[in-house]
TrEMBL record, chain A:
GO terms for cellular component: endoplasmic reticulum membrane; Golgi apparatus. It comes from Aythya fuligula. This is Exostosin-2. Gene3D superfamilies: Spore Coat Polysaccharide Biosynthesis Protein SpsA, Chain A (3.90.550.10). The gene is EXT2. Residues 102-381 form the Exostosin GT47 domain. Belongs to the glycosyltransferase 47 family. The lineage of its organism: Eukaryota, Metazoa, Chordata, Craniata, Vertebrata. The chain crosses the membrane at residues 25-47. Keywords: Disulfide bond, Endoplasmic reticulum, Glycoprotein, Glycosyltransferase, Golgi apparatus, Manganese, Membrane, Metal-binding, Signal-anchor, Transferase, Transmembrane, Transmembrane helix. SUPFAM superfamilies: Nucleotide-diphospho-sugar transferases (SSF53448).
TrEMBL record, chain B:
Residues 96-377 form the Exostosin GT47 domain. Pathway: Protein modification; protein glycosylation. This is Exostosin-like 1. Residues 663-676 have a biased composition (Polar residues).
Length: 719, 726
């Protein structure tokens, strides 16, 4: 299959056929000369290029004014107007994209031309700075192809970002004569300022037939859901002004309005709000008495007081983003950059990238008719949520607004996700800021499902050569009612397991797996023989656990199937003197690990341990022949965010007299090694995932004054 | 030696010729601009020499919209382009909130089973009203589900009837349900009457005619779909890699002609007889033999060899292609069976797509790319398969398993549109327990709910509010309780709900404690103990009765446990439910048993959200019922939390046993015999099961004790040593 890893050719090199010794010398000479020639040519070809290509192609040194000029005859065809019923399955040709292992669409960019009409007057500005940045970003991305025949998506180099800078009919003609135009199929146009006076359409007025539109001011009437992409209106201030991220928290103004050209009706409503609520609301306007040389766009005024824009946005908790003549406003980008929560008042506006971004987490949308209630609505937002929205707003800006590159790549990714939906980026990846991605956990076993008791569990005993003790463990475990299969992992390559006839006769299937190497990770391999979800890992010397204890452990696991449920409890502690983690095996009031010498867990974790263990932990454990149990505790806690469950009071597992219960011993070096493991794993995981708890699970009636024979699990050992 | 020279010469010449050709070739190629990109470095977009001099796409003034004309407010009345802001009268919802009115059903106008269930669901909703003047949303009494003119259930003359209705008003603020539209041969979107400005809740919605943010796409459900409760999902094994017999399966009709035949006619191509089973039959309609082709006979035989249900439950992925219409019953069947739907239905606006993120539960394929489906699904990683399977089960159970859920989801989606700032973020809809059980009236912040701490990367607050309900004048036990609880290091405040006839005593009569104590006067309403009082400001609530007796140790330990299980009820006094086979009903017992499924709220920690859920989610009638029966509120709270979490409550260790005394304490005022109390509790339980449509309670066999509880070690080593004092 294409998605599987590449197959290797394992055959050795072909043999050189024998020939006459006499001719061999000549052939070899000839061959070496040809080879030399080839090498020389190769060096000549590639050497200078490698310098050249790191800078530019020779042609790239040109100016945009030197590009070829294309004259458009007055009667050249005009595409049809945009088709409002277009959807991916009707207007987009997916066959051009094809199935590929990387699941990436290929994007082609037409070369830059200058278009003039019959009289030589230019149709539009050749290209704007922003559109050039956008095309450069696409060209540098992994979506790009320079092969027009392999392309799935075509981006014209005709700049239509701002409708006001172009001639509509002629631009449409220029589009129509593109070499692969084909009614605009699979063509993508970027537009940020659509429409023009007097009625300001919310989508680009240039007739464009079936072309997809990435537009910056769609309303629900012009936006073709699942076909067009709604993009932000880029604010050039993003590149000019550096606003350092401000920590979330209360700010000086509660509500701020910074837009200069507001409709008088809206302005008076805002001013009424200011009159009502005083200092906490600030409504800014353009400055009238600025001295010469001060750029008006970087200043705002209120009652002769001058504020720096966009810096002032950082002083406010909520910033109003009102519709103007157009629905999309560049101020949204400034507001997000300042980490101010946008209050969006623009009915029917399709927010940027709304197909993938969850704007409810970063903004407050208020219907236009509820504008007078704005203050009380915003007051009702809980403080913790405001802080998250501030963080989220800044994250949206950083990821999707800050540059033309960010806008271009997000747009292409959205289209890519539609074409390869099974490889699409998830909601979390689009919306969670890095700090949330880092601290949050998405449990792979998230469905609250109590597995049926009838499924039972598979016991896996890892053994080397302690046959007598192994047989005792097998006999004990086989008494547990819910045992459905027993798997012995024979880790000794030098010795064969005992004859079939010597094994204890038990009521469930017993299977011996022989391993190729004596590795500890063999105990956590997701063997096909494991047919149950529940796995009991048990060492070959754990002979003290009673059948009641094991059965009860299984019942507890059913209630917590996404956790490690085990008997020997351990703790990790922070050693303040040494400034590192320490392993603790004393009987303490707390537990953060259970040893897999006797523990139930979900088979899924075997899969994770074998294939998804971070870093070099798996090899490290096999090399040191220690700490596989601690590694498993780290893995499960890290992926689920949950603590372990220690079951029953049992603390002695091998013999009643033993004080130590470890698989190995309790000597000092062992403790040091185990502590080393914890420190090593914590550094590989980059965090300490283990959770400390103070509880253990006992049967409901444990030690209660109640007839023992009526209890489900009477035989629970005390230590 | 001649030969050697010749060879050498030839070799020299050859190599120089080669070199020359290569060089020249390169020159030629470059000068002629023959585009022949070298592998590895494609021709990129040029770095223009003057790129820094290029002008911006818009000057700053323009970006500020200088001289903006008055904002056009689009009041288009064409119903095909309706949006909430143009066709829906929000004013109707302002006074009384979101209320739904169903017209009284007229006699002599029979409705189909399905529509009857929809109407019943609406009437069961907490938004239902009987008064049209306070309604925000109207639903017709006329069955509009089947608008296929060839169908027996088609109601003719609908248009005139609507025109005559005084409330119809061009469809404004109306919600029209529909499962089948159009008819043979095109099966379009026509309903046979003008819906006008009414919202459509329709199955098999075509994205082209769907009015985004206005209409609602609902799933096609069968006639025998349960009214409430609903069957469970079928996922039992969370195995990785998925241990199912087949990878991909389909069994269904193959249309030989007509709409939808494009896809149905091609499905047999992907059948490989091993892990991909795609079976079709030509047998459908009366005259199938007329269109029969050479495949039909063999296919029809193969078709009979497999059982549909067996394929459904033993396949990892199920193909859900369009039928004549875009949606099919198959979709919900696959969802329930945890068979990940592979949708081949271009242009279908998926059910509840406004809120549900289907990419987490289904593979949305393209009809055109059917042949790529096998390789595409093979490439999906096992972890993702497991996640998809679980999500199908969550979505099935949260939104689809009963008519109630489908209808209530529709209502909640519409309600969320009315107040965008008080609506659920997309996340709440797509993570358990789902949008119906996460109320935006409580909060829109995911960190405030008990379910999402892990995904959110936060933890519940480290303090609790003790909430004590007092029904009789102050007595010694209550004072002792207040003191014991206040000594807990985790106690933030104590609230006393004063539900006694006499006025509460003055402040100096209350014990002197270190945490704030406040008294709330009872509202004298049923279940006022679970009212979401604003005074409760911590995530955790310790709910107590005046008869409860707890030590500080017990409180401390239980709270620490609750922090590990913030979505559950964690408490001391347990009882359990059981199926009484003799009487064919559920039984209730508070005797000592090996299992528990209820933890009494007379002494229990839970999240304050459950106060909001109890009051906001349950209809008033049910709360009244619970208030009227002994200890029924307790049971209702447990049933509610179990319905939300699907998990049992947690019982923690307690110092002494006061179980036997419990039932009497639960009965308010008089003290009837405990047997009468038990009967009432059984009644209560059975009525609740009836309302929920299933038994939500889940049993547990464990109790959580401190790690060294009752161990034979020195008492001095134990943290919670007071728990063990006799």
């Amino acid at each position: 299959m294409m998605c599987a890893s590449a197959k290797y050719n394992t055959r050795g090199p072909a043999l050189i056929p024998r020939m006459k010794t006499k001719h061999r010398v000549y052939y070899i000479t000839l061959f070496s000369i040809v080879l030399l020639g080839l090498i020389a040519t190769g060096m000549f070809q590639f050497w200078p290029h490698s310098i050249e290509s790191s800078s530019d192609w020779a042609v790239e040194k040109r100016s945009v004014h030197d590009v070829p000029v294309v004259k458009l005859p007055a009667d050249s065809p005009i595409p049809e107007r945009g088709d409002l019923s277009c959807r991916m399955h009707t207007c987009f040709d997916v066959y051009r994209c094809g199935f590929n292992p990387k699941n990436k669409i290929k994007v082609y960019i037409y070369s830059l031309k200058k278009y003039v009409d019959e009289y030589g007057a230019s149709v539009s500005n050749t290209i704007s700075r922003e559109y050039n940045e956008l095309l450069t970003a696409i060209s540098d991305s992994e979506f790009y192809t320079d092969d027009v025949n392999r392309a799935c998506l075509f981006v014209p180099s005709i700049d239509v970002l701002n409708q006001n800078t172009l001639r509509i009919k002629e631009t449409a003609q220029a589009l129509a004569q593109l070499s692969r135009w084909d009614r605009g199929t699979n063509h993508l146009l970027f537009n940020m300022l659509p429409g023009g006076p007097p009625d300001y359409n919310t989508a680009l007025d240039v007739p464009r037939d079936r072309a997809l539109l990435a537009g910056g001011g769609f309303s629900t009437w012009t936006y073709r859901q699942g076909y067009d992409v709604s993009i932000p209106v880029y604010s050039p201030l993003s590149g000019e002004v550096d606003l350092p991220e401000r920590g979330p928290g209360p700010r000086r103004y509660f509500i701020l309005s910074s837009q200069m050209a507001l409709h008088p009706e809206y302005r008076s409503e805002l001013e009424a709000l200011q009159a009502e609520n005083g200092e906490s609301v600030l409504v800014l306007d353009k400055c009238t008495n600025l001295s010469d040389g001060v750029p008006a766009v970087r200043k705002r005024c209120h009652n002769n007081q001058i504020f720096d824009y966009p810096q002032v946005l950082q002083e406010a908790t909520f910033c109003v983003v009102l519709r103007g003549a157009r629905l999309g406003q560049a101020v949204l980008s400034d507001v997000l950059q300042a980490g101010c929560v946008p209050v969006i008042i623009a009915d029917s506006y399709i927010l940027p990238f709304s197909e993938v971004l969850d704007w409810k987490r970063a903004s407050v949308v208020i219907p236009e008719e509820k504008m007078p209630e704005m203050y009380s609505i915003l007051q009702s937002v809980p403080q913790r949520q405001i802080e998250e929205m501030q963080r989220q707003a800044r994250w949206f800006w950083e990821a999707y607004f800050r540059s033309m590159k960010a806008i271009a790549l997000a747009t292409l990714q959205i289209i890519n996700d539609r074409i390869y939906p099974y490889a699409a980026i998830s909601y979390e990846d689009w919306n969670d800021p890095p700090v949330v991605k880092w601290s949050s956990v998405s449990n792979p076993l998230f469905l609250p499902l109590i597995p049926p008791q009838s499924q039972g569990f598979t016991a896996i005993v890892l053994t080397y050569d302690r046959v007598e003790s192994l047989f005792r463990v097998i006999t004990e475990v086989s008494k547990v009612p819910s045992l459905s299969k027993l798997l012995v992992v024979w880790n000794n390559q030098n010795k064969n397991p005992p004859e079939d006839s010597l094994w204890p006769k038990i009521r469930v299937p017993l299977k011996v797996v022989r391993t190729a190497e004596n590795k500890l990770s063999n105990r956590f391999f997701p063997y096909d023989e494991i047919e149950t979800e529940a796995v009991l890992a048990i060492d070959d010397d754990i002979i003290m656990l009673t059948s009641d204890e094991l059965q009860f452990g299984y019942e507890v696991w059913r209630e917590f199937p996404d956790r490690l449920v085990g008997y020997p409890g351990r703790l990790h502690l922070w050693d303040h003197e040494m400034n590192k983690w320490k392993y603790e095996s004393e009987w303490t009031n707390e537990v953060s690990m259970v040893l897999t010498g006797a523990a139930f867990y979900h088979k899924y974790f075997n899969y994770l341990y074998t294939y998804k263990m971070p870093g070099d932990i798996k090899n490290w454990v096999d090399a040191h022949m220690n700490c596989e149990d601690i590694a498993m505790n780290f893995l499960v806690a890290n992926v689920t965010g949950k603590s372990v469950i220690k079951v029953t009071p049992r603390k002695k597992f091998k013999c009643p007299e033993c004080t130590a219960i470890d698989g190995l011993s309790l000597d000092q070096t062992h403790m040091v090694e185990r502590s080393e493991c914890i420190n090593k794993f914590a550094s590989v995981f980059g965090t300490m995932p283990l959770k400390v708890v103070e509880h253990r699970a006992d049967p409901v009636l444990y030690k209660d004054d109640f007839p023992e024979k009526l209890k489900s699990f009477p035989n629970i050992g005390s230590l | 030696m001649q030969a050697r020279k010749k060879y050498l010469l030839v070799a020299f010449l050859a190599s120089w010729l080669l070199l020359f050709l290569l060089l020249l070739g390169d020159r030629l190629r470059r000068s002629a601009f023959i585009s022949q990109p070298r592998a590895g470095s494609p021709r990129r977009w040029p770095r223009w020499a003057d790129r820094s001099l290029l002008g911006s796409f818009a000057d700053p003034q323009e970006l500020q919209d200088r001289g903006a004309p008055p904002p056009p407010s689009p009041r288009l009345n064409a119903s095909s382009r309706c949006r909430m802001e143009t066709c829906f009268d929000l004013g109707r919802c302002r006074r009384h909130g979101f209320k739904v009115f169903t017209y009284p059903r007229q006699r002599g106008q029979p409705v189909s089973d399905s529509y009857g269930k929809i109407l019943a669901s609406l009437e069961r909703s907490r938004y239902h009203t009987r008064r049209p003047e306070e309604a925000c949303l109207f639903v017709l009494p006329i069955d509009t589900l089947d608008r296929d003119r060839l169908s027996a259930r088609y109601v003719p003359g609908l248009g005139q009837e609507l025109g005559a209705s005084p409330l119809w008003n061009g469809g404004r603020n109306h919600l029209v349900f529909n499962l089948y539209s159009g008819t043979w041969p095109h099966y379009g979107e026509e309903l046979g009457f003008d819906v006008g400005q009414a919202m459509l809740a329709k199955a098999s919605f075509d994205a082209g005619s769907f009015r985004p943010g206005f209409d609602v796409s609902i799933p096609l459900f069968p006639r025998d779909h349960p009214q409430r409760g609903g069957q469970e999902g079928r996922l039992r094994h969370g195995a990785v890699p998925p241990r199912k017999k087949y990878l991909l399966a389909f069994k269904g009709k193959r249309y030989l002609t007509g709409i939808g035949s494009g896809t149905r006619n091609a499905l047999h191509h992907i059948h490989n007889g091993k892990d991909i089973v795609s079976l079709t039959t030509c047998k459908h309609g009366k005259d199938w033999e007329k269109h029969k082709d050479e495949r039909c006979d063999k296919d029809n035989v193969d078709y009979e060899k497999f059982d549909y249900q067996e394929l459904l439950h033993n396949s990892t992925f199920c193909i859900v292609p369009r039928g004549r219409r875009l949606g099919s019953f198959r979709f919900l069947e696959a969802l329930q069976a945890a068979c990940i739907p592979v949708l081949l239905s271009d242009g279908w606006e998926l059910p509840f797509s406004e809120v549900i993120d289907w990419s987490k539960a289904a593979v949305v394929g393209s009809e055109k790319l059917l042949l790529q489906i096998p390789s595409a699904v093979r490439c999906i990683h096992p972890e993702r398969v497991l996640a998809l399977q679980q999500q199908t089960q969550f979505l099935w159970d949260a939104y689809f398993s009963s008519v109630d859920k489908i209808v209530h989801t529709t209502l909640e989606i519409i309600k969320d549109r009315l107040l965008p700032h008080r609506s659920r973020p997309r996340f709440l809809w797509n993570a358990p327990p789902g949008g119906l059980l996460a109320l935006p009236d409580f909060s829109t912040h995911i960190g405030d709910f008990p379910f999402y701490y892990l995904q959110h990367g936060s933890s519940p607050s480290d303090k609790f509010t003790a909430f004590i309900r007092v029904v009789s004048p102050l007595s010694q036990p209550v004072l002792r309780l207040i003191q014991a609880v206040s000594r807990s290091q985790y106690c933030a405040q104590i609230l006393v709900l004063w539900s006694c006839e006499k006025p509460p005593p003055p402040l100096e009569k209350w014990p002197q404690i270190t945490v704030p104590l406040s008294v709330i006067e009872g509202r004298r309403e049923p279940s006022d103990r679970f009212f979401p009082y604003a005074a409760i400001r911590t995530d955790a609530v310790l709910s107590l009765d005046e008869h409860s007796s707890l030590s500080t140790s017990e409180v401390d330990f239980a709270f620490v446990v609750w922090r590990s299980f913030p979505e559950r009820i964690v408490g001391f006094l347990a009882s359990s439910h059981f199926w009484d086979a003799e009487q064919q009903r559920w039984g209730y017992t508070s005797r000592w048993t090996n299992e528990l499924s209820i933890v009494l709220t007379a002494a229990a920690f839970y999240h304050r959200y459950y106060h909001s859920l109890f009051t906001g989610y349950l209809p008033a009638g049910l709360r009244e019922l619970a208030g009227g029966l002994a200890a029924c509120e307790d049971i209702l709270m447990n049933v509610l939390v179990a319905a939300v979490t699907k998990l049992p409550p947690i019982k923690v260790a307690q110092r002494k046993q006061h179980k036997e005394a419990v039932p009497q304490q639960q009965v308010k005022g008089t003290a009837p015999s405990s047997s009468r109390g038990f009967l009432q509790q059984q009644d209560c339980l059975n009525q609740l099961v009836d309302w929920f449509g299933y038994m939500p309670l889940v049993s547990s066999q464990l109790r959580l004790d401190p790690v060294l509880f009752k161990d034979q070690v020195s008492i001095l080593r134990k943290k919670y040593r007071h728990l063990e004092r006799p």
